[in-house]
Amino acid sequence: MRAAQGTGSRDTHAAASLWIDTIRLTDDRGRALALVGRRQRIVSLVPAATEILFAIGAGDRIVGRTRYDVHPAAARDVPSVGDGLRPSIELVTARNPDLVVLFAGPDNSGVAAALERIGIQVLAVRHNSLPDLERNILRLGQVTGCRVAAEELLDRIRDGLEGVAAATRRQPVRSVYYDVWADPPITVGHGSYLDSLLTLAGGRNVFSDLAAPSPQVSLESIAVRDPELILWPVSAEVRADDPAPLDRPGWATIAAVGRGAVRTVDSDLMHRLGPRIVEAAAALATALHPDATAGLTALAKGAIPQNGAHGCPPP
């Protein structure tokens, strides 16, 4: 009798464990996912998601990444599967993933459907706003079992962004044009996290009234809105097809360009909505208020873990 009771107890415990380990969430396609157990083999096709996974201590679960995933340095040791938009299904499936994280949108809808047809679960995420970042951190913490680490990371990001806002609160607000692309001119609108970061950094995006994250505008409209500063994001290797604003045809008609009020920011840092977001906000604050934010970037760099975190159980 005692043996039978013991077996029943084990069966009940196993059933309870299965229920506890079933992770239920909804991705940004509105698709419900039910994942049994923590994900052990993840292909991340979103560079910022790769950074998040490393920051919460789940970097060792990543078995595939895009060729753009180069942060943190340990990510470069993960095999690349190429591009994140319309990726090679053959290269992705060759990594034998139990979860693929990809951009939610029409470019990847066919890929997501194809992966799901062969039994690979997909987490499709939007990646435009600060609320998107918060959702993605918590969801990745959920699917990896690193919930505590994800919550800690999110708290540190919130505290860091508040620190940047506090450092610039008494500074004059600088009107800014953020130069995403030159020809045709593309900037950031209210739908972009960069619009939020500019506000936190003590700036005012002159195109914040546009709802789209990356609206196309005209030289004439930039000149009419007359920004005090132009922020030009550049990478370590400045492209030949992206000359400085003063060297572009017609751009000297914009008053800020004509008087040399152009400041560069690191595009690799700015264009990743991930754990380095506090560092990005601090860099923007430094560009807008260089005399008032000394040391802020250095503090931001140390604020967010880049490889490993507490509260994440081993796979």
Question: What do these coordinates show?
Answer:
The chain has helices at about 1-20, 45-55, 90-95, 105-115, 130-145, 145-170, 195-200, 220-225, 255-260, 265-270, 275-290, 295-300, and strands at about 20-25, 30-35, 40-45, 60-65, 100-105, 120-125, 175-180, 205, 230-235, 260-265. It has about 325 residues and is an alpha/beta fold. The strands form 3 sheets. The chain has a 4-stranded parallel beta sheet with strand order 4-3-5-6, sandwiched between helices. A 4-stranded parallel beta sheet has the order 8-7-9-10. Strands 1-2 form a two-stranded antiparallel sheet. β1 and β2 (about 30-35) form a beta hairpin. The chain is globular, with a radius of gyration of 22 Å. The two termini are about 35 Å apart. Residues about 1-20 have low confidence and may be disordered.
